[in-house]
Amino acid sequence: MPRTTPLTTQPATLPRLGYLTSLYPAASHTFIQREVAGLRALEFDVATVSIRTPDSSHLIGPEEHTARNNTFYIIDAARKPATLPHALLAALARPGRLLQTLALAGRTAPPGLRGGMKQLAYLAEALILAQYLKAQGIDHLHNHFASASANVAMLASQLSGVPFSYTLHGPSDLYEPETWHLREKTARATFVACISHFARSQAMLFSDPAHWDKLRIVHCGVIPDLYDHAPQETHSGMRLIFVGRLAAVKGLRVLFEAFIQARQTHPDLHLTLVGDGDDRAHLQRLAAPLGDAVHFTGYLSQDAVAQALAKADALVLPSFAEGLPVVLMEALASARPVIATQVAGISELVENGVTGFVVPPGDADTLADRITQLAADPAMRNRMGEAGRTKVRADFDVRIEAARIGALFAGQIGNHLRPQPLGRKER
After folding, report:
1. Radius of gyration over alpha carbons of the chain, in Å?
2. Is 230 found in the same domain as 216?
């Protein structure tokens, strides 16, 4: 398929990147792994760094095991007795930077005694990270999300002199913008990759207009080819699927209310929930009277999620708050229509009545109505699914999105809100 987006010329020398987040790999954040893989395909040298070490529930496939084995874990390193003293000695060798970092830490600490204690922990982690960045010859540090790990990134950048940037997702990044000092982080960042126009607008709200030109839109994405030719199994009734954390913010109790209501006219509806979380036990109790109409799978690998989508007829995501969910991209790339709530940037991906339905959050009646509409009209499902596949190919291919953020890393900022993708080095 020909590219419709021009590529900028790739410079001869690319910066060595450090990629930081609070937990890597994480079952619900596979988009970061895809972005890292896309950058490496563009010949960036990327060192992945995580504050915490994932437990086995996040190691859901071979990609995650590989990422686990090739990531530097700050808290693991801190458990070695010599690590923090050595990092502090290294920082003392640059007293001016250390004093500036201490002042910055004090100014940007979360409020209260507890917030101050957390900031001390972030500072200790930043000391370790700064030493790692210098030892590894990292030229640029990038952080996903704008909360705790971004504090560490900002402080480590000040300590080490290595420039940093961050990706703004939402919704949690935006719940407490003053607590997380988005204004300060944006002012100090080389750039901010916003995953949607909505996220960018919120960054504009909580930053100095002098820095708005740093706010560029880089989508999370998928590899559409992996979802091509998804076989449609022959089965009775419509099969719905949900993929995500089983948490209150996902609105699953509203989904259950709507699902029960829709089954009054379509008793052969089925629902599969892929994922895990704090709300699972309660949801299983709600599902018990429905028998085998509801199935819980737990977390699945990326390949297994693609297979589950192939067996479904539509995806439903009834969240109360979201950023721009990658699972919607996965479903649309599989040519499956979606039903999602009108929150944050979702309408930038899901066009109501074209690629699926957008419904008010918390509205079980409307959600039930849209489920029954799709259940009654297979031709509509097919039409919406094909439109969604086209949308994802055009705007949410992670390989192109990695090339967009790659251009920013390479210093090719330009004037476009959506950076022009960086070209591959010619051999």
Report:
1. 22
2. no
Is 8 domain-assigned? Answer: no
The verdict on 100 and 174 lying in the same domain is yes
Give the residue from 372, 336, 343 showing the smallest Cα distance to 242. 336
Domain extent for 315: 226-395
> In 3D, which of 204, 193, 203 has the Cα closest to residue 173?
203
Residues near 2 by Cβ (< 8 Å), separated by ≥ 6? Answer: none
10: left (phi over 0), alpha (psi -120 to 50) or beta: beta
Contact by Cβ (8 Å): 328, 220: no
Residue 12 to residue 411: CA distance in whole angstroms: 12
Nearest Cα to Cα of residue 162 among 357, 15, 45, 46? 15
Strand partners, 357: 339
Amino acid at 79: R
pTM of the model: 0.89
What is the mean predicted confidence (pLDDT) over 233-261?
91
Cis peptide leading into 85, omega within 30 of 0?
no
φ, ψ of residue 249 in degrees (nearest 5): -65, -20
What tokens does 253 get?
């109790």
Do 402 and 254 sit in the same domain of this protein? no
How distant, in Å, are the alpha carbons of 190, 340, 352 from that of 318? 35, 6, 14
Instruction: Provide the residue type at 275 as one letter.
Output: G
> Could you tell me the end-to-end alpha-carbon distance of the chain, in angstroms, rounded to an integer?
22
Residues in the chain: 427
> Residues 101-130: pLDDT tens digits?
999 999 999 999 999 999 999 999 999 999
CA distance 335 to 176: 36
Regarding whether 373 and 357 lie in a shared domain, the answer is yes
CA 285, 291, 293, 296 dihedral sign is: positive
67 with 216, same domain: the answer is yes
Asked if the model's pLDDT at residue 1 lies above 60, the reply is no
Angstrom distance (rounded) from CA 94 to CA 384: 59
d(CA 389, CA 285): 35
Model pLDDT for residues 43-73, shown as the tens digit of each residue = 999 999 999 999 998 888 899 999 999 999 9
Beta bridge partners of 422: 8
Q: How many domains are contained in the chain?
A: 2
Q: What is the CATH number of the domain that holds 50?
A: 3.40.50.2000
DSSP per-residue string spanning 133-155: HHHHT-SEEEEESSSHHHHHHHH
AA letter at 353 = G
Best CA proximity match to 78, nearest among 50, 56, 59: 50
